[in-house]
Amino acid sequence: MNRRTLAVLAASLSAGLAAGTLQAGEIVGKVKYAGNAPAPAKLNITKDQAVCGKTPHFDESLVVAADKGIKNVVVNITDPKDGKKMTVSKNPAVDQNGCKFNPRVSIVPAGQLVDIINNDGILHNLHTYPKNNPAVNKAQPKFKKVMNEKFDKPDIVQIKCDVHTWMNGWVVVAGHPYYALSDAAGSFKIADVPAGTYTIEYWHEKLGKQTKSVTVPATVSVTADLEFAAK
Amino acid sequence: MPKVVDEYLRRMSTLNMLFAISSVGLLAITVWMVYDDYSRSWKRHQTEFRRIEAGIVQTSLEAAQQAVDGPALEAARQDLEAARADTREHARGLEEAAAHLKQIETEHFRTDLQFREIKSTYDARKFEYEEKANEGHANAAELLTHVQELQRRLEELRTTLLENEKAGAEAADAVKAITGKADEAAKRLEVLNAEATRLQGRLDKVAPHGLMKAALAALNAPLMDFVAPTYKIQQVVLERVPIDINFTRIPRADRCQTCHLASDRTGFEDQPQPFRTHPRQDLFVGGGSPHPIDRLGCSPCHGGRDRAVDFVYATHTPDNATQRAEWKDRHDWERDHLWDFPMLATSRTEASCLKCHQGVVTVPQAPRLNRGLQIVERYGCFGCHKIRGFEDRDKVGPTLTRLAAKTNPEWVARWLSNPKEFRPSTRMPRFFGLRNNQEPGDAEREAAEIRGIIAYLRGRGEPFPTPPLPGRGDVRRGETLVKSIGCMGCHAIERDEAAAEVLQARNRLEGPDPIAWERRFGPDLSHVGSKLRPEWIYRWVMDPKSYDPKTRMPSLRLTVQEALDITDYLMTLRDEGAAATPPAANPVARDRTLLAYLSQRMTAKDAQAKLDTLSDGDRDVFLGEKSIQRYGCFGCHIIPGFEKTPPIGTELSEAGSKHPDLLFFGFIHEIEHTAPAWYFQKLKSPRIFDQGKVLAFYDRLRMPQFEFTDDQAEAVTLVLQGLTKEKVPLESVRRLSARDQAVEAMRRIVRDSNCHGCHILEGAGGAIRQSIASTMMAGGMSEDEAQATAPSLAPPILDGEGDKVQPEWLFHFFKAPSPIRPWLQVRMPSFGFSDAQTNLLVHGFAARDARSFPFQTLPTERPREAEMQAALTMFTGDYFNCWNCHQQGSRKPQGPPEGWAPDLTLAHERLNPDWIARWIENPQKLMPGTRMPTYYDPEDPKGSAPPDVLDGDPQRQIEALRDYVFTLGARGPSAPAGRSVRPRR
Questions:
Q1: What SS3 state is found at B665?
Q2: Does B899 contact A163 at a Cβ distance shorter than 8 Å?
Q3: Quick one: pLDDT band at residue B1, thresholds 50, 70, 90?
Q4: So what's the pLDDT on residue B247?
């Protein structure tokens, strides 16, 4: 009997003893790119050189690490068994600094105010391309350092700036807490997932959306390695 | 015994028997007669409807009872109980108070009576006195005393009355003090139960019980029901939409609601027919709708026998075979051939809109009918068939007077023998090789006819010089131009845009056309290189009207090099499939055909003699002329020698009133014997009714094969059904106001110029976006992104254009377009509109947006210094940074033109000032999806305005910006454009 089986056994035993306590595991894993990704192209900065041209810009729509891990993949379960909502301690922020959206991909709770920050001190505008929420196109001149934006329904919203056409970002609006964003190595972790079998969905701005089925045991983590075909 | 002579001639016993039988028979027949008269299908429907209605009321009653606030109801009930108990306790006091009140009321009544009596005497005496006094009569003074005495008594009584009233009020208050609480509780209870009580009342009425039920049963009983039955025929008499019965126009009496009892009532949407609510209460039937039932009834739109109260007699028409079978089963349905206005099948009711809605480009809310009208319009049915409402329209095909300059005879031969073989999307129908010309010798004759037509067009055509090309073009540049400057608003290159399987399915009429209808305005360019001469293309794209003054192709103001590039690119679009070979000369077939023609008018000998006088070439031309004459090519094309020839087809202006007996079904028995079935069949297979008949070739059906899809044929049939001879009186026809007429005139030009190919207007159009997206996808963009980007590269949406721009500017823009949006590659073409047409367009746009036309006041005053400074401040980079994107005359913004915005120095001569203000306030509201960002949050303008400019007042800021924008450019005393000032800290 190996350690893992023991752990599961212990977990179910303790669950049986303390009936009613929530059993939760976690999903960890890595998203990989099956193929060789081209090196990110350098972007041509055509405007506001003084502010935007301070550092070189690269096309970050597909960033793949040396070991093929893909950055900025949103992994979420599509069928949570509880009605929990995602909570955050303070407003998530999207910063426009050096004429790029930082972070490029944010996960924000539905209905939560998002701080849109203009640290550049020049005119930007927030133009959203949502599917389930109303589209907005709001100017953010220098005198408006912080704007608030709210997305009420779960969605994947592209954000752009029409003044600086190379600026591209994404706001993923989450209806529940079981969302994770892959880091530079392609790793992600969805914590506190109640035991059960789920469909997980993983989305990347350029590679699209795929799904996979995963069973989460109580208290321990399950490894889900995901892969996108080369494009 | 003397013989008893019978005094009767017949034997009584036999007669008695006869009388007995006949009286029993008479009784039976009377009973049967009464029964037959009584038992009417509509009564059964009304009984059934009562039952349904009672069920619905019962359900809502139960729901209402459920909905009553239970605790509140209980509390009110308890209050009532308590109050009543309280009242009982004070019973004695109440009795006394009530008795007192009654006494006072009696007293008051008596006094009042007395007062009135004396008042009348007083009035009479007073008049008497006045008369006497005027005549100077002796006893006037005596009368006066009497009158004064009466007056005194009246005054006394009046005082008593007032006192009584006061005492009465006090007594009533005393009563109320005791019963008030109970009354109030009862009232509350009543309010809570109001809805339920109302519904209970309805229910009692709809489904009476007890004595009432018996009484109603008696009223509706056989032989009793002549008095006041509750089951009645319901009818509306329509004086204003009469029906023409054998040359007499009489008012309609629509009795449809005798069975369709809920047609004007909501709540019966899910009930079976005939009890269903009319599905479009907003448009029809309802009192507030544009077609109220009391004015327009049912039969003017639905058709059918207005007075009928029986299913079959009303001439209901089934929608499909399933329904027909069901009706046969349920109603013993059969087609009634004796009524000239059979009801339209439910799905075909739209046809009737045409009776009243004429002279409009689209009939509101009639999508299928509009589709039919579009097809009639584009396919040019009116070229051969005279159709009311389509008079004086231009021919739909290209002019053929200068054909030799455009193409070659081999291609014309290939085209004529089967146009769809060369270009499957063409609207040119096929004339040759069809089903009624499959006998021996027909193929040879048709080949000779094609040769003849080509010879005629070449022989009678006029020259059109096409000088050699002035240089060489670049195919790649040409392709980019064709796919970006706007050609794709009206044309398609379907082989580049759609998958081969999709196109093949379309060719087999099994799938839809992947290209938008607007982009079928001009021909598909997939294979034009196999058809056209490069010299001709060059001249044509440079100046289309020089070749054909009536063409709808506009000029895109190409440079010589652009025209050369486009010419070279188009010449690469070749169809290498079938080699074009002209039909070989066949003098025998030709001469035989010519003799047949000539022999119609003269003897065979004379015909031969006439033929012998013609040379070989002349014979070809002569056969061409005869063939063009017979096939009616001039219906769609301008052909020399046929400029005035009348069209060859049957007039269709009253096709919808045509009785099927007047249509020739021949040996085709598979289709229904109705006019719409015949039209549909004719449209799908125009020559089928020749089947089984023996005919000389010139007597055969000539209508060509269009290869309509079922949907198209259905839509055209709908139009034909709508073209009736029924005359609707002017007062009932939709009449257009002056403003509507201006808008319609604009819509006609919009339709004829295919503005919808590029622009979205009134919920339609913008087809070029399809091409822009597919071009971007061909460049490697994902479909989602291409679809999202296409709108920003497409020509502007024209809804609200009249509101936005100054009429004078719009006039000049139509006459000589100049670029407004530097980021667009697509060009507004020069349509070459006349002044009159341009004025109609400009007026129509203004009228559509309820703007005044043509003159208006524009601001000329320079804004005051404070406002000017404020505007200049807001224009700077620290604020709105307007020049970051907007072009300023010759000063261009940074970055590539895709990121630029319109030149603000043009605004003062282009835009309406109030529009500018509304635009700055909320651009997304005026043009959803625009790249102009919103500076003022619509929900919090004050909070989002720059706080340190003009006291942070958004209204003043917007006005300052507007006025400043109006000073930019040339007009009046203007500020130094774009002068940057230091922002106020």
A1: coil
A2: yes
A3: low
A4: 84
Cβ B465 vs Cβ B556: under 8 Å: no
Report the sign of the C-alpha dihedral through residues A140, A145, A149, A154, in that order: positive
B877 touches chain A (CB under 8 A): yes
Nearest CA in chain A to B944: A144
Give the containing element (helix H, strand E) for A31.
Answer: strand A24-34
Apex CA A198: angle with CA A193 and CA A199, to 5°? Answer: 125
Q: Which of B702, B443, B461 is nearest to B584 (CA)?
A: B443
- What gap in Å lies between CA B308 and CA B688, rounded to an integer? 37
Task: Answer yes or no: are the C-beta atoms of B896 and A46 closer than 8 Å.
Answer: yes
Q: B394 — phi, psi (to 5°)? A: -65, 150
Strand partners, B244: B249
B449-470 per-position pLDDT tens digit: 999 999 999 999 999 999 999 9
Number of H-type helices and E-type strands within chain B = 39, 6
Range name among A104-108, B91-95, B362-366 with the lowest pLDDT average: B91-95
CA angle at B535 for the pair B531 and B539, rounded to the nearest 5°: 105
Tokens of B276: 């269903």
Residue pair B341/B303 in contact by the 8 Å Cβ criterion: yes
Distances, alpha carbon A68 to alpha carbons A65, A179, A206, B240, in Å? 5, 21, 15, 80
- Tens digits of residue pLDDT in B762-773: 989 999 999 999
Rounded distance, CA B481 to CA B385, Å?
A: 40
pLDDT of residue B691: 92
14-73 of A, contacting B, C-beta below 8 A: 46-48
- Per-residue pLDDT at B3: 63
Instruction: Give the model confidence (pLDDT) of B854-874 as tens digits.
Output: 888 887 778 888 999 999 999
- Would you call A129 an interface residue with chain B, using a CB distance cutoff of 8 Å? yes
| B402, B463 Cβ separation under 8 angstroms | yes
- In one letter, which amino acid is B669? H
Q: Which residues of chain A have pLDDT under 50?
A: 1-3, 5-21
Q: Which two tokens stand for residue B301?
A: 């739109």
Q: Give Cα separations from B935 to A99, A123, A147, B6 (angstroms).
A: 19, 11, 12, 123
Q: How far apart are CA B842 and CA B836, in angstroms?
A: 10
Instruction: Judge whether residue B5 has pLDDT over 70.
Output: no
CB contact under 8 Å between B934 and A136, yes or no, is yes
Instruction: Tell me the C-alpha distance between B179 and A100, whole Å.
Output: 79
Using alpha carbons, list the distances in angstroms from residue B820 to B334, B511, B599, B902, B924.
Answer: 65, 40, 66, 6, 19
Closest CA to B236 of B144, B307, B321: B307
Q: What is the pLDDT of residue B2?
A: 61
State the pairing for strand pair B284-285/B291-292.
parallel
CB contact under 8 A, B878 and A141: yes
How many inter-chain contacts (A to B, CB under 8 Å) are there? 69
Which of B95-104, B607-616, B743-752 bottoms out in mean pLDDT, i.e. has the lowest? B95-104
B-chain residues within 8 Å CB-CB of A141? 878-881, 935, 946
Residue B970: pLDDT band (50, 70, 90) is low
In angstroms, the CA B62 to CA B195 distance is 11
**Global pTM value:** 0.81
What are the chain B neighbours of A138 within 8 Å (beta carbons)?
A: 933-934, 937
Residues of B whose CB is below 8 A from A135: 924, 928-929
Compare CB distances from B880 to A138, A141, A165 and report the shortest one's residue: A141
Tell me the C-alpha distance between B73 and B3, whole Å.
99
3-state percent breakdown (helix, strand, coil) of chain B, nearest 5: 55, 5, 40
Residue A32, beta-bridge partner list: A69, A227
Tell me the β-bridge partners of A200: A77, A212
Contacts B947 to A, Cβ<8 Å: 143
